[in-house]
Write a structure and sequence with these properties.
about 0% strand; about 500 residues; mainly alpha
């Protein structure tokens, strides 16, 4: 039943034209959108989480995650150029594997975009709380973090989510212009970090290189466990494809935005992580049993209360600079993160609203979610609803747990996209492909296997949440979407 009701690609394109968003984004804006989504909490904050899981071996984790993302990016580029409409992996799956599987992918993407935005809210609050504390204006402890991280309510994470939601409501082009400025700030900050930390690299800081081993399935620790978590650092490049319907000349600009943004970010990640590890070290904190503690747990929070270790920091890169006695530069980097990280929240929330918009346009969600504001020309209703959840999750949960949950939905969606490319090569071999991937029967199977490898190395609790969320999604689909689907009922969006 899940593979029935395949929506022809030509019909997807026709539906989009009847209720379309304005095409206003070019190649440069798309690349900036991708970089804005990718460079964020993953490198600014999760460097500490990865160090706790893998020690200096997180260098390998970054490379593994980059390879998997690169393979998936090629699949995204081919499908996005063929079907340049909003919806990302959800839309592609609808046109290849059917409505039921498309719903599951769309439902999984909630874990990617909404939870990812919440993750960055928490990461941003860590840097801003650090700045306020150094300036003597720190918030009370119970307002700095959520319940599982030693606090009660992360106030700053909640507030930044609300501000970004407002910005997205007032317009896409305005948001994209602001985003481009913030991306430049982030890149300059990381460049400054590399120039200062790289000369301080010392060989002993890399030993032992793999203190926790390679890891085991569902353990969440080790090089593969860190790769499964640090995968979050690359999440976001596919947000470029969610903007396809608002892109000028999407057949050319979408592949440029996808591959260009991923390439730039990979180079920066390797340089930054090497500099951070080599300059101050990144050895994990061990529990009473001699095993590394799991990040994002009360036990880890308790162990870190009196520790200056990099793996404990909520503002990892600024912390490195301060340990190197560059206090003013550390403050500058913290300020840059505080200014620039909201661009990631913006991009992730943006991507989620466009997926919900497309699902509502297909009849799988209530039609009011696809309403477009008469003045701002944005899907304001779904943007407000998404923003509320982004803010609340950011106020309650720790950054590590949110990142892992995000990765579970993302990896599943990436697998579906790679499978979709292979299916279309068989079922529609003559269809026009403005961007045609080479070696498809090598690249796509490797993308699927790579995603599976990282998926099974997520913590067991994360996998349980993923499958529970999937069950809830199926219930919602059969109670509403299955009956209301425009494709099944022969109706058109209004």
């Amino acid at each position: 039943m899940l593979f029935k009701r395949v929506k022809p690609l030509d019909q997807i394109l026709a539906t989009a034209e009847k209720k379309a968003l304005t095409r206003q984004l070019g190649a440069f804006q798309l690349t900036m959108l991708g970089i804005g989504a990718i460079i964020g909490t993953g490198i600014f904050v999760l460097t500490a989480e990865a160090g706790q899981k893998a020690g200096p071996g997180m260098m390998i984790s970054f490379i593994i995650a980059a390879v998997v993302c690169g393979l998936a990016a090629l699949a995204y580029a081919e499908l996005a150029s063929m079907v340049p409409v909003a919806g990302s992996a959800y839309t592609y799956t609808y046109g290849v594997l059917g409505e039921g599987m498309a719903w599951i992918v769309g439902w999984a993407l909630v874990l990617e975009y909404t939870i990812a935005a919440s993750t960055v809210c928490v990461g941003w609050s860590g840097y801003v709380n650090g700045l306020l504390a150094h300036a003597g204006f720190g918030l009370p402890e119970f307002l700095r973090t959520g319940p599982m991280d030693g606090g009660t309510f992360n106030l700053l994470a909640f507030l930044i989510g609300a501000v970004i939601t407002f910005l997205l409501v007032i317009g896409t082009s305005k948001s994209a212009k602001v985003n481009s400025v913030l991306v430049v700030v982030k890149v300059l900050a990381l460049t400054a970090f590399i120039f200062v930390a790289l000369p301080a690299v010392k060989d002993p800081n890399f030993k032992p290189f793999v203190p926790n081993g390679w890891g085991s399935p569902m353990g969440g620790i080790g090089v593969l466990g860190a790769a499964a978590s640090i995968f979050f650092a690359y999440v976001g490049f596919d947000a470029v494809s969610t903007a396809a319907e608002e892109t000028k000349n999407p057949n050319r600009n979408i592949p440029i935005g996808l591959i260009g943004s991923l390439g730039v970010c990979t180079v920066y990640y390797l340089l930054v992580s090497y500099s951070a590890i080599g300059s101050v070290g990144a050895q994990p904190i061990l529990g009473a049993n001699g095993m590394a503690l799991q990040p994002g747990t009360p036990e880890m929070a308790a162990a870190c209360k009196a520790s200056e270790a990099l793996v404990c920091s909520k503002e990892a890169l600024a912390h490195v600079l301060r340990m190197l006695n560059h206090n003013q530069l550390g403050t500058f980097l913290g300020l840059a993160a505080g200014i620039a990280l909201p661009s990631v929240i913006l991009t992730m929330t943006y991507g989620q609203t466009r997926i919900f918009f497309t699902m509502a346009r297909d009849g799988l969600l209530p039609n009011f979610l696809s309403k477009i504001h008469p003045r701002f020309h944005t899907p304001h209703v779904v943007t407000l609803i998404t923003g509320i959840f982004v803010s609340i999750f950011g106020a309650i949960y720790p950054v590590g747990q949110l990142a892992d949950i995000t990765n579970s939905g993302t990896l599943f969606a990436f697998m579906m996209v790679a499978i979709g490319v292979m299916v279309l090569r068989v079922t529609q071999p003559d269809r026009k492909r403005p961007f045609r991937m080479r070696l498809v029967w090598i690249v796509c199977p490797l993308a699927v296997l790579g995603c599976l490898l990282l998926f099974v190395n997520l913590p067991l609790k994360t996998l349980e949440i993923f499958f529970a969320w999937g069950v809830v999604g199926l219930v919602v689909y059969y109670l509403y979407g299955y009956r209301k689907s425009h494709l099944a009922n022969g109706t058109e969006p209004t």
